[in-house]
Structures are given as structure tokens and as C-alpha cells.
Amino acid sequence: xxxxxxxxxxxxxxxxxxxxxxxxxxxxxxxxxxxxxxxxxxxxxxxxxxxxxxxxxxxxxxxxxxxxxxxxxxxxxxxxxxxxxxxxxxxxxxxxxxxxxxxxxxxxxxx
Length: 111
Hints:
Helix content: 40-55%
Largest sheet: none
Shape: globular
Strand content: under 5%
């Protein structure tokens, strides 16, 4: 019988699991971009019109929606979400467990 390869349970952050620097920021950006994609799909706009609406060039929006996060700050991505008529609220609270550094999390509010 063939032995199955061993596996590890992920941390919940694929970027951290891959050992990438700035893993927490990459996860946050990817979650914001997923929400951006969801909002744009709901508006049923062409990519050119969507790009104009959120204030970027169409090729940049195409790259962003294709997972190329480089060159886009969290702040810029949040401004793009706001341009689509969404309010953004940033909440600072104590960490769930006493540890030196808290986490950063993106959560979409119910519609």
C-alpha cells in the first residue's frame, strides 16, 4: 500500500504558511480585493467602467483582480471599496489572547 504524504494544518494565513514576508498585510489585501471583486461583479460593469469608477487604469484593475497585489496599499484598496458606495469602519480592540502583537482582520458586514 502506498504511504500518503504527511500534511500540516494551515495557520489560516496561506501567505504565512508559505513563509512570505508581510504575510498579514498580504492576507488583508487579498481579502479586500475579494470584496472589491464581489462588489464589481454585483454592479455588472465592464472592466473599463469599473476601473474609472474606482479611480485606476483598466490594466491595473485587471492585474489587481488577477491577484497581483504589488503597488496597491491597503489604504488605496479601501478607497476603492469606498468609491463603490461602502462605508469602512476600522475598530481597534484588545487582542483575544494576551500576546505581544494583535492581529489584523477583514470582515464584511451583512448587507
